[in-house]
Amino acid sequence: MKFEFSISLKYFLILIIILKFINSSHTINFDDEIYTQYSPFAAFRILDKTSIFGTTSPFKPSSGQLYLVETEADLTKLLNDNPSHTLVVVIDTAVYNKDNLEKLVDKLKLAGIIVIGGTIPATGFSPEKVYPDREADMCLHPNSDYIWNPYGTSLLYERFYIPIVYLLLETESEKMRELARANVESDKYPKNGADFQMFMEASIDSKVCLRRETCDPIGGESVWGFLGGVQNQSRPYILLQTSLDSRSFFPGFSPGGDFPSSGIVTLIAALDALLKFAANDTDAFYQSLQRDIMFAFWESESFGKVGSRKFISDVLSFTCDQWTNEWKTQCDDPKRSSMAFKSVNLSNIAFIVELGQTGLYDNISNYAFKSNGYLHYEYDNPENVPLSDSFINLTDFSNSQGLNISHLEKSDPATPGLPPSSAETFISLLGTQIPAILISDFNQNYTNKYYSSIFDNVQNLDLDQLQGIATATARIAYAEATQTLPENVPLEIVADQALISQLVDCFVGTTYCDLFQNFLGSISGTYFSSNYPGIYATDTISIHSKFIRDFITNSTNSTCDPNYCTTDEDCNSALQVCVNYACHSITAYFHPAYSNGVEYDPDNDKFNIVDFGLDHLWTESRWEGIELRSFQINNPSINAAMLVGGILLFLLYYFLIWIQKKKSFFF
Amino acid sequence: MTLVLFFGCLFVAFSPIIALFIFVIYKEAKLLIIMLAGAFFWLLSIFIASILWKIVKPLQDENAWSIAISIVAQEGVRLLLYKIFIKLEANIYRFATKQTLETEKSYLKGSLACGVGYSFAYVLVMYGSVMTHSTGPGSLFTSECPKISLFIVNALLAHNFGILNILWTIIIFISFKSLKNKKENKKIIYIFAITLSLASHFLLSYLTLIKNCKVSLLVNYLISIPLAIIGYFFIKKYYRNKKDFYQSQINETQKDEQTIEVIKPQENDQKQDLTRRRVPNDNTSDDEPVLFDNDIKIK
């Protein structure tokens, strides 16, 4: 019996090996033959405290015939024809705007919309509101009807129950265009079609979806620190800040050229200029400071200003439930990678300089200069006027020295005051009249015609303009920190244009740029740089945040421990971080940026709502996957004929067998 | 709409198999088992063909060689199936006292079940995997066949080969059986039938290589339809001959019985003995020598 068993087992194993051998041979994947997969950027669903925005597909994938709309005439024809069958409209970016999307959705039977092409609409297009964040609780002018963003359409705050996606890759975009064009040019089958699968699980609002665990809070890590890593708590400091994020209708692709990348680039370049100057004689530089210089890149400011808000609330009232170590330098619950923020004294802020949209060169009003900037501030704070005057004096003097520095002017008094900015959070939350000046490239309204859109790309930026603003910021910071006269500000404090060029390439172009590669090693993830923060995760840090921290740490003449490291945890001390495989003394810190209304519960790995009263609770829906496929559609009449023919064939065979039985055939 | 195509293709490809299964095979448990055996043997044939295809590298580059090796494997295994089937039939009827029209019917039904099983496995494996993809919204079109969906082309071909596989199995089974019959004087017809079956299998398979799918389909059907009609009449003729033969046997037996009754109407036991003794001699058709061997042994 044993022998038989072993024999049969042997043959069984041989059979399995043979089968495996055969299976490993060529296999035809019919799905690959039938369907062409694309990698779209989807307008996925985003939720706030009371509503939902963005798009979703039905639970069951929706499909339809492709139809190409390249011009307004095409759109009019389509709307007039109003075909009865389900369509997937392929719309060129030239005619992509809120009105046209709404017309398509309202009047046609649609399975989805695919936005293709790289044509930038000359008339301008911004999916943001005309006054961004006016309804937010931090807004200093909630009743103002001023139009900051004249191209605003509020598309970001619309909801659609059909999927809308953007094909960025030119190869994919052109292929889709050709397929759709073929449908328009010929009435014959097979037609080209597409289907979507991007069902968004979250519904109703953030509170409901967080409870149902179908969404996650939007957020990331802000980066902040003091120049040189030193701070004398007893003396005032200057806060240089900017936003680290933006959004678009297709959040995954938010190039954020003029906003926020221009601000990020100019602030990094300004800090770099100061640090390079400081590196000449570090001790003398820091001893000369009468005021410290704090810098901050606030994350998720486009979503309820949660970056600056979280930082302020933590500085004022953070309590740690579970410390990571006995020295209390880190906290596990709630997670804080550094407790350095507790040493920040917010009442010592001398003034805030915020860099907003700074990348567009205004060649109309001040064509004599290569770079122009406008100073925005609150009129009810009398300290802002002399402060802005001193900025202007400094830059005027620097211009007379032949430096490429921005020519600064005060903004038009017709504006209500500070435009939407992180400075509003400080003024609102701290309840004190902190002087705050926002430097921007616009005077009255946004000159950026593509604010918060997919078109706000690198073409929108002017390198001379950026260098001028960065140099101005660095020199202002130096003059104000050392309390020196404009003529005493060293000529060496000039922003590096080569660095600015590289930074623009990285922040607005691709993450696979040289600078990021040098600092972060091999980059994994999306090729295109996006400023959308994504969902907050305690163990994930965005490429942008990580780069900024590492770059500033590396630029600071900090003690370098040659110990080989790959992560911060490899360094011996909590006061060291790993940059370029070496441990450096920490000079820039991460700080979580997510809504104060939620808190992470590490035991259950979920976010719980801790404050239902807050109005800044932005979340991103969960989904199984985002898929777009194109394929050929068979003639429905032929499909129906096949079914009828098949049934008739079956009946025919039945009849023939029945006759044979009647005739006493052998069965 | 895509489920419409799926069910359409399903009915077209499987309609002869489903109809025969429901109305003939499902009625008898024995036929069900034979059908499953037929399906298994077709899988065995394709298993052998795949091993050969994998081992012999040149086969992988040329479709023509792959088809050839696959047909040889299928026909070889069909022969093996015949050998096993004839043994199975012999065992089922080993207690039968004589070869009758019923045993002939059983043989034909068994052949049909083998054919349906063979055909079912063929259609399921060769077309089932393609057909499952027709449930999606997309259809498959090739550069050679840009207007007709590959699902439809394959369904029509599967239908065609499905019927032909059933007919080939029955024809080959009855032809081999007839060739074994020493008294069969029209062996040339059966040799021709086997040759035609094999040749048509090769011919029709190679016709699928025609790049223009419309021409391929048309030629396939133009050849298959007459072949199927000829095959049907061939089987019908065979069955009619057998039927007539056994009818005449019955008539003769009845005559003999009347004669015996006239000679010794009162000796029932002897009459039975006589009748029984005559059976082997009366069954002059040596169609089933194995069967008769068994019968004699039992006695």
What's the number of extended β-strand segments of chain B? 0
Spatial strand arrangement across the major sheet of chain A: 1-28-10-5-6-7-9-2
Largest sheet report of chain B: none
Number of domains of chain B: 1
Instruction: Report the helical percentage of chain A.
Output: 25-40%
Largest sheet geometry of chain A: 8 strands, mixed
Radius of gyration of chain A: 30 Å
Pfam families (chain B): Aph-1 (PF06105)
Main location (chain B): membrane
Keywords (chain B): Membrane, Notch signaling pathway, Transmembrane, Transmembrane helix
Region (Disordered) (chain B): 260-299
Could you give a quick summary of the protein structure above?
Chain A is an alpha/beta fold and 667 residues long.
Outline the structure in words:
The complex is a heterodimer of chains A (667) and B (299). Chain A is of the alpha/beta class. Chain A folds into two domains: 37-200 and 626-641, Glucose Oxidase, domain 1 (3-Layer(bba) Sandwich), CATH 3.50.30; 219-505 and 523-555 and 585-593, 3-Layer(aba) Sandwich (Aminopeptidase), CATH 3.40.630. Helix content of chain A is 33%, strand content 20%. Chain A has 16 helices and 28 strands. In chain A, the strands form six sheets. An eight-stranded mixed β-sheet of chain A has the order 1-28-10-5-6-7-9-2. An eight-stranded mixed β-sheet of chain A has the order 19-18-20-17-13-14-12-24. In chain A, helix 3 links the parallel strand 5 and strand 6 (87-92). Chain A is elongated, with a radius of gyration of 30 Å. The model of chain A is unreliable at 1-25 (pLDDT under 50). Chain B has 299 residues and is an all-alpha fold. Chain B has one domain (2-246). Chain B is built from ten helices and no strands. In chain B, helix 2 crosses helix 5, helix 4 (63-92) packs antiparallel against helix 5 (101-131) and helix 6 (150-180) runs parallel beside helix 8. The longest helix of chain B is centred in the C-terminal third of the chain and has 51 residues, at 213-263. The termini of chain B are far apart. Mean pLDDT of chain B is 81; it is low at 267-299. Chain A: One of its GO terms (biological process) is protein processing. Chain A: Residues 44-202 form the Nicastrin small lobe domain. Chain A: This is Nicastrin.
